[in-house]
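Q: I'm writing a short methods note and want an example of a predicted protein-small molecule complex. Could you take the sequence and the SMILES for flavin mononucleotide and return the bound structure as tokens? Please keep the output block clean; save any remarks for afterwards.
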Amino acid sequence: MNTKPTNVAARFAARGSVRVFSDKPLENNVLDNILAAASHAPTTGNMQLYSVVVSRRPEALGQLRKLHQGQPCVTGCQALLTFCADLRRFSRWCELRKADCGFDNAGGMMTAVVDATIFAQQFVAVAEECGLGTVYLGTVMYDLQGFRRQLELPEGVMPLFSIAVGYPAAQPQPSDRLPLEAVVHRESYADPSDADIEAFYAARESAPEAARFIAENNKETLAQVFAEVRYPRSVNMAVTEGLKDFLHF
Ligand SMILES: Cc1cc2nc3c(=O)[nH]c(=O)nc-3n(C[C@H](O)[C@H](O)[C@H](O)COP(=O)(O)O)c2cc1C
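A: Understood, no commentary inside the block.
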């Protein structure tokens, strides 16, 4: 067995998100071919509990940029794909066929979220193999009702995130990752010691940009920049309230 990384593995390790795109057009048939390939991703019971809304019209992208907190790649990309957990299509089929569909609950939604996420990441993998650049936009979570209105999503369809896609303006730089032993556990979960945790984050904490982020944000540690500035509790609480309002299970 070949234990060296294959070319594909090397390409995956060198990838990076793309936020600035060239003007090179992305033809509809190319996008559709990638989506068709991605739709062969594994899906719970082959039910495909997901949908994706493809936005390409400039006016629509302008509106979506506002909803995405002004992120410039929304209007700079060739297409914005908003991936949704979709319990509606399957449950309507069940209704038509006199089947009692039991997905109208948190368990069902969890299944749909997993399915939609696998589909989306397969889209990213195929798109990047085709020379396209992509970036996920999680800002959907900040205004679920706004995305619902903009994309005319009916009951049972929850937007999860968007992916901006287009040809990269420049080759993306791969970003760092934690060492593999931080995320891989052999046979059972090895709860790390404090010293392990410090070792896992050491390279990231000693990178030159860490000192800059800390100084810019007037903080003492990089963890504070992540937890208190970029992803503070208040934002997660607001997202939690938005989810309660949206899901009402
Ligand atoms: C669910 C999700 C949401 C994300 N949301 C955003 C976003 O709103 N804006 C952005 O610029 N990048 C976003 N990203 C991209 C991450 O910042 C990026 O993947 C991470 O920093 C690692 O960098 P890399 O993809 O270049 O390896 C998101 C990624 C994921 C998976």
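A: Remarks, as requested: The chain has a mean pLDDT of 96. The first strand starts at residue 50 and ends at 55.
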